[in-house]
Amino acid sequence: MVNAFWLDRDLDRTARWLADPHVLSSVFENAMVLTTAVQLNGYPESDDLYYTHADHPLTRWAAAHRDNWDLLYAYTAAAHDEWRYRWDHPPEETHGSWATVESLDESLLADLDWPGEPSDPPQVTGEWTADDYVEAYRRYYANEKRDVFEWSGGRSAPPWLDDYRRDSENDM
Fold first, then answer.
1. Residue 156 to residues 1, 84, 139, 152: CA-CA distances in angstroms?
2. Which residue in 124, 120, 122 sits closest to 144, CA to CA?
3. b/e per residue 121-136 (b: at least 16 CB within 10 A)
4. CA distance 52 to 71
5. CB of 5 within 8 A of CB of 22?
6. Which of 43, 97, 118, 130 could disulfide-link 31, Cβ–Cβ 3.0 to 4.6 Å?
7. Three-state SS for 167?
C-alpha cells in the first residue's frame, strides 16, 4: 500500500519526523503515485515511468488537481532531502525513484487536463480519522506505525507522539 504521512503542514518538519523506514518509502511510493497521477491525466506513457495504484485514494487525489500534485511533489522532495541527510548521501546523489519524477517534462505537465478541485490530502488512516488530516495522520502514525519507530542521523521521535498514543479504542 502507498501512503504519505502528513504529520505536519510544514513538510520539512514532516520529513524530519518520519521514522526511518518511512523516509525511504515516502520517496519510492510517492514517486509511483506522482508518475501514475500525471499519466492518468494524459502525460505520455513510458516504460521509464511508474504506473501503479491508479485507484488508490492518494493517486486519485494527486491526479485531481495540479495543486494536489504539487503538494505531494513537495512532500516527496522533502522526504528525498531527508533521505540524503539521514544516510549521509552527497547532494549530487539522487534516489532513482526521485530521478524518475524529476525526469518529467514541465511543459507537458503544464498542458495536462486536471479534472478536479484542490483539496486536502485523503485520510488513508483506517479508523484513525479526524476533521483535520494532520490530526488523523498523527493518530494513525502514533498507533499503527509504532512497531517501526526508529530515527537515525540524529533525528528523534516527534514531540507529540505520546500525546496521540492510545492503549485501546476507548481512548480515541
1. 25, 16, 18, 8
2. 124
3. bbbbbeebeeeebbbb
4. 19
5. yes
6. 97
7. coil
Orientation angle between helical segments 66-86 and 20-40, nearest 10 degrees? 150
In the block, which residue shows the cell 505520546? 162
pTM of the model: 0.95
Helices (H), 87-132: 96-102, 106-110
Nearest alpha carbon to residue 76 among 11, 21, 156: 11
Number of H helices, E strands in the chain: 8, 0
pLDDT at 171: 52
Distance (Å, rounded) from C-alpha 123 to C-alpha 101?
23
Q: DSSP class of residue 145?
A: S
Confidence at residue 168, expressed as pLDDT on a 0 to 100 scale: 56
Give the pLDDT of residue 167: 76
